[in-house]
Amino acid sequence: MHDFVDYVVRKLVDKPDSVQLTEEEKEANKVVFELKVDQEDVGKVIGRKGRTANAIRTLLSAVAAREGKRAILEIVDK
Predict the structure, then answer these.
(1) Total domains in the fold of the chain
(2) Which of 19, 24, 33, 40 is the one with CA 20 to 30 A from 2?
(3) pLDDT over 90 at 78, yes or no
(4) Considering the entire predicted model, what is its pTM?
């Protein structure tokens, strides 16, 4: 899951070296991903009306469901 989100986000932003993705297990089947991108790239990751962020979250949920887990993506600027 981590590699998937990292790959997708790095392809979207202008400064892929500034992307930081941390993963934290909250419960037995719940994983929280915290995504930090450069302030200039936050809009690209979120998209118009949050469509890009929602698409990433939907794909992440599908990947997590295959592993029997629940995933949450939080987007934070640096």
Answers:
(1) 1
(2) 40
(3) no
(4) 0.87
Domain span at residue 17 reads 2-77
Pairing of strands 20-27, 30-37: antiparallel
Contacts of 2 by beta carbon, 8 Å cutoff, 6+ apart: 21, 23, 33
What three-state secondary structure class fits 35?
strand
Q: Compute the half-sphere exposure of residue 25: CA atoms within 13 Å on the CB side of its CA.
A: 4
Exposed/middle/buried for 5, CB within 10 Å: 0-12, 13-18, 19+?
buried
**Residue with structure tokens 């949450």?**
72
Per residue in 19-66, pLDDT tens?
Answer: 999 999 988 899 999 999 999 999 999 999 999 999 999 999 999 999
Tell me the CATH number at 48.
Answer: 3.30.300.20
